[in-house]
Amino acid sequence: MKILHLFSDWKWTGPSEPVVNLCQALQQRGHEVVLAYRRPPFEVTESVEKAVEERKVRGIDSFHLAPISKPYHIYRLKDIVSDIKRLSRYIDQEGFEIVNVHNSHDHIVGALAAKASRRRPPVIRMDHKRDSLNADLISRWFFRRYTDGLITFSEKGRKRLMKKLGFPPERVAKVSTAVDLDRFDPTKEHKDMRQIFGIPPSSPVVGIVARFQRYRRTDILLEAISILIKEVPEIRLLLVGRSSQMKESVLEPMERLGISSHVVLAGYRTQDYVDTLACMDVFVLITPGSDGTARALREAMAMGKPVVVTKRGMLPELVKDGVTGYVVQESPQAICQALLPLVKDGGLRSWMGKAAREVAESEFRLERQAQEVEVFYRRVLKKGLCV
């Protein structure tokens, strides 16, 4: 198949890596894939552009793909019209059979371009949002008129989209987001990050990776650790990530609880991110971020880490309670009770961590994701399923 992916962003955040990885995996399965992405406005260390080059994905950056996100962006309207016209011609010239869109802006531009083309290929929207796609009156009208299929990452989201948007089951697929299992391999040798972070070798490490905004409720985890310290005084909490709201969400609660000496602020890690995951004993996630696929949780499971999560979003779908970790209520006491046996019992950690890796190898494989997406493409291409 000839497949055009549109991604109206240049930043290496949220769904960027899964989008590029999917394009690479589809390409490896023998499909002709092009990823149209937004060119970075200035020099950056990480971007979609750099990832496309590194992974040898065929990319194109000659379209604007810039949304009107602020009132003063109204000047971009002419660029949007230009993109629709040029994309329509590009679809016909290249003979694309599928147009796969990922964000709201590229959905609008890509769908209008596809319907204006002579080929009129089906348009597939992939859902990356924490609370699933919007289902207001305007969104329902647009989806029904300009969308041939939907791909989401959770069964909860699939049922919601069918109900709210009125799509039949055959036009909505649940496909699990993949992880690079070779990169996140617990059997590989990793750098000793405990020494770098000043964590004693004997201290159990509870870790979390997030943008520490207030809605991520890191304060609940901090309070859980403050309770846990009474039972396990040597415990350390490793916070990986950053946010403009760190003061309110992390620093002030940490000081108030008097646990600063037990908390390590690792900041945003790039080159040694996998090594940082490797030094954790248990991984915790309270609330999924704006990228609702809970990528960091999947990566921790791939690294063979037992996990503790709440019932927010799709988290309960990823964690087998009592097998790969624990699914608990969103309270400090419940999180503390789940963490206690894991930080005390190395055998339990090992058993659950092994189970987590097995789940990752079964459900988070890039090849499996690409195969399921391919099957859905072919289903939508069948007569009668296109809008």
Short structural summary:
The chain folds into 2 domains: 2-178 and 366-381, 3-Layer(aba) Sandwich (Rossmann fold), CATH 3.40.50.2000; 193-363, Rossmann fold, CATH 3.40.50.2000.
Topology, pairings included?
Layout: E1 2-7, H1 16-28, E2 32-37, H2 48-54, E3 59-60, H3 77-94, E4 98-101, H4 104-116, E5 123-126, H5 137-146, E6 149-152, H6 155-165, E7 172-174, H7 193-197, E8 205-209, H8 218-228, E9 236-240, H9 246-257, E10 263-267, H10 273-278, E11 282-285, H11 295-302, E12 307-310, H12 315-318, E13 325-328, H13 332-344, H14 346-363, H15 366-381
Parallel strand pairs: 1-2, 1-4, 2-3, 4-5, 5-6, 6-7, 8-9, 8-11, 9-10, 11-12, 12-13
Helix pairs in contact: 1-15, 3-4, 8-9, 8-13, 11-14
The amount of beta strand, in percent, is 5-15%
Whole-number total of structural domains: 2
Quaternary structure? single chain
Tell me the number of strands. 13
CATH class of the largest domain: Alpha Beta
Structural class: alpha/beta
Radius of gyration: 22 Å
The outline comes out as elongated
Classified in CATH, the superfamily of the largest domain is: Glycogen Phosphorylase B
CATH architecture verdict of the largest domain: 3-Layer(aba) Sandwich
* Helical residue percent band: 40-55%
CATH topology of the largest domain: Rossmann fold
* Unreliable sequence segments: none
Number of helices: 15
Separation of the first and last Cα atoms: 19 Å
Mean pLDDT: 92
Order of strands in the sheet with the most strands?
A: 3-2-1-4-5-6-7
What is the string of SSEs from the N terminus onward? EHEHEHEHEHEHEHEHEHEHEHEHEHHH
Largest sheet: number of strands, sense, barrel closure? 7 strands, parallel
